[in-house]
Amino acid sequence: MFQKVSRQRPCEICGKSDWCTYSNTYSLCRRTNTGHGKEKSDRNGDAYWVYRNGDSPASNCHQSRSNVPKRPLKCIQASSVVNQEITQILGLEKAHWGNLYNRGLRDEHIIQGEYRSINPQTLNLLLGKLSGKYPVETLLKVPGFWKDQDQKIRASQIFGMMIPVRDVKGRITAFKVRRDNVPQGENRFLLFSHKNGVSAGNELHIPIFSSENHDVIRVTEGELKADIATVLSSVKTIGIPGVSSWRSAIPFIKEYNYKRALLAFDSDIYDNKNVARAFVEAYENLKKIIKVEIEKW
Are 65 and 14 a contacting pair, CB within 8 Å? Predict the structure, then answer.
């Protein structure tokens, strides 16, 4: 049975006393990917990493989060370059274009957002063109690519509409895929990544679209929702990758000196106790640094 970490028994991986869980055999860390754990996603789409107790270099030393190695900048640089190339190779299927249009985006937004489609046929095209342009070492720094047993470059077989995940500089650091076909019980949205390659991480998404109101910031779940909300409301809306990842929004809010934050989670906060708990935590912590208002979708 898994128990919550505490000050008396912090997480063996990140050293923190909240958010993570553990059992006699395993530690489930929601903050840190050391490269030694198995990456999984919970029902809300949040990533976490499963470690066998004692297997991670961080085990038994209770490292602080700041001392855990972070993703190298060169990996982010390689990802942004290759991901931008992906948008040049792939197109957007008519069905996906229509889906975005029905959600409120117009043609100019769809073009600017650089949404793309990926299927088995275009995946082969993508692999061929990328392999002909970039060294293997570069592609292996990008989420979604890895080498098989024959040392051939492979790519993740997650098919659907690709939604760029952007950092504060507008770079595409990863893709979230809205899958066309979803087996029962699985998530519609998945990161374009693979367990044998580098981790895509749990990154805050900053929409590329401009906003008119520079005093207000909205925090919501998901990259696509953040894009659409920014366009339709003219309020900059940042997308956290899952409800439990609200902490990733705090540095951005502090950096840009917003005066008011709108907290807009999905309606399942009323039905899902995990979502409700994350919502309360987000509200209580955000109001320490900014005036917070709650929005309902």
Answer: yes
